[in-house]
């Protein structure tokens, strides 16, 4: 029998969180891992629902592009060296790195987790678009409604193309 803690409902533990699993895989992938390079090229910090995950991903991806080490110890050291200019506060970075390094993810799964992160990001963007259109329908003058819908539609189409490009690349 599973005891459901109401405080945890809707919150995935790191072992079930594709964002956490992706970050773990990227940290353990090593310097010569083309799938990780591709993931860091396609995904963006804004694709992550957890802002700490997004900031860590952005930092990790920039280091990977610069051919700098992205293992947990190197990331922790680099973040610590940055002091207050680091993308994450020191205590947050330390806790997050410790949590992520213990997940035991194999680097071969980074593209699978990246696909899940990108899919969830696309869905959140869609939900935000729907909410923005509802808001527009209630507050904007009628002549502004169609242009607003077109603007949101174009942004969503771009997000869809990005999502599909990643999936198409994966199936090749």
TrEMBL record:
Q: Which domain of life is it from?
A: Bacteria
What is the protein's given name? Answer: DnaB-like helicase N terminal domain-containing protein
Keyword field: ATP-binding, DNA replication, DNA-binding, Helicase, Hydrolase, Nucleotide-binding
Organism the protein comes from: Corynebacterium pollutisoli
Q: Which SUPFAM superfamilies match?
A: N-terminal domain of DnaB helicase
Tell me the ranges covered by the DNA helicase DnaB-like N-terminal domain, including all copies.
14-117
| Signal sequence region | none
Q: Which molecular-function annotations from GO does this UniProt entry contain?
A: ATP binding; DNA binding; DNA helicase activity
Classification via Pfam families: DnaB
GO biological-process terms attached to the record:
DNA replication
Q: Which InterPro entries match?
A: DNA_heli_DnaB-like_N_sf, DNA_helicase_DnaB-like_N, DNA_helicase_N/primase_C
